[in-house]
């Protein structure tokens, strides 16, 4: 089995919108397992971020503004990242911020052979953008309006029919994204790989919806084409 890269997600809540978190997690699912997820800020005022912490298993890190005019959050994030660099087996550091103060940190991480993925708005200074291996603008990421649907469905023990599954926008988007990302030259995507990519995007098990596996759940949606590869392996394809 191929060993996945380990990702550390570090969020500057003072300079990032909670609306972008779904798109950020979806993007990171392409690169490996996001094993460390931390959001830094003053939780007495960061009310919008509070709503996405539990659904995405993000650890909140409280940071009080000790001195007026000084950004204590940036310093706390930098200290923790440098600690991870030398104590944790992290391959990819994802920094969510539109603040150019993280430019030296990104350069240091790259100098140590780590991949740095930045997430921020288009207003982000070019110095920070170019210091990262990859920088993703978050302005066009979709919001969290549909996220509650999945949580409500998964609270029940019944098996969901195709209509209930199709009504869960986030679930369907995760399946569609997974099939698109791993399709081969013939257009087919291995069911096993699709299952792995879905798991990276969302925390729910297919059992929460009444199915033993992701392939069985995908079959139940009756929304995707099913078949087998040349090696007789189960596969899925987007219907035209």
Secondary structure layout:
Blueprint: E1 5-12, H1 21-28, E2 32-41, H2 47-53, E3 59-62, H3 72-87, E4 92-96, H4 103-111, E5 115-120, H5 126-131, E6 134-137, H6 147-154, H7 162-166, H8 169-181, E7 189-190, H9 191-201, H10 214-221, E8 224-228, E9 234-238
Parallel strand pairs: 1-2, 1-4, 2-3, 4-5, 5-6
Antiparallel strand pairs: 7-9, 8-9
Helix pairs in contact: 8-9
3D architecture notes:
It is a single chain. This protein is of the alpha/beta class. 38% of the residues lie in helices and 20% in strands. Strand 5, helix 5 and strand 6 form a beta-alpha-beta unit. Helix 8 (169-181) crosses helix 9 (191-201). The longest helix is centred in the N-terminal third of the chain and has 16 residues, at 72-87. The two termini are 32 Å apart. Residues 144-149 have low confidence and may be disordered.
Cα separation of the termini: 32 Å
Q: Count of DSSP E strands?
A: 9
Number of DSSP helical runs: 10
Gross morphology: globular
* Element-by-element helix/strand order: EHEHEHEHEHEHHHEHHEE
Strand order of the largest sheet: 3-2-1-4-5-6
* Overall average residue pLDDT: 85
Share in β-strands? 15-25%
What's the helical proportion of residues?
25-40%
Low-confidence stretches: 144-149
Radius of gyration: 19 Å
Major sheet summary line: 6 strands, parallel
Helix/strand class: alpha/beta
């Amino acid at each position: 089995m191929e060993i996945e890269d380990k990702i550390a997600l570090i969020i500057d809540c003072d300079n990032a919108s909670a609306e972008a978190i779904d798109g950020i997690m979806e993007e990171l699912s392409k690169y490996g397992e996001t094993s460390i997820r931390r959001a830094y800020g003053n939780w007495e005022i960061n009310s919008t971020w509070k709503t996405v912490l539990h659904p995405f298993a993000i650890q909140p890190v409280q940071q009080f503004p000790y001195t007026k005019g000084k950004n204590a959050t940036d310093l706390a994030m930098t200290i923790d990242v440098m600690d991870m660099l030398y104590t944790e087996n992290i391959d990819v550091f994802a920094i969510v911020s539109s603040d150019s103060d993280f430019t030296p940190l990104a350069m240091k991480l790259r100098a140590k052979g780590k991949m740095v993925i930045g997430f921020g708005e288009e207003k982000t200074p070019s110095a920070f953008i170019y210091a990262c291996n990859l920088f993703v603008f978050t302005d066009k990421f979709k919001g969290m309006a549909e996220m509650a649907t999945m949580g409500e469905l998964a609270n029940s023990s019944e098996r969901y029919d195709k209509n209930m599954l199709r009504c869960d926008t986030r679930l369907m988007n995760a399946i569609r994204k997974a099939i698109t990302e791993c399709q081969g030259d013939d257009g087919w995507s291995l069911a096993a790989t699709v299952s792995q990519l879905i798991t990276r995007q969302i925390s729910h098990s297919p059992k929460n919806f009444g199915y033993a596996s992701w392939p069985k759940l995908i079959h139940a949606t009756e929304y995707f084409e099913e078949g087998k590869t040349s090696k007789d392996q189960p596969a899925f394809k987007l219907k035209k």
